[in-house]
Amino acid sequence: GGEDAESIDAALMRSRSERETPFRVVTPDDYAAIATSTPGLRFGRATALVDQIETRGECVPAHLVRVVVVPYGTRSQPVPSEGFLRAVDDHLQQHRLLTDRVTVEAPTYVGIGVDAEVRIGDGYAAAERTAAIEAALDDFLDPLSGFEGGGWPFGRPVYLSELYEVIESVEGVDYVPDISVHARGETGREEGNVTIPDTALVAPETHSVFVRGGH
Question: What is the pLDDT of residue 11?
Answer without folding.
Answer: 52
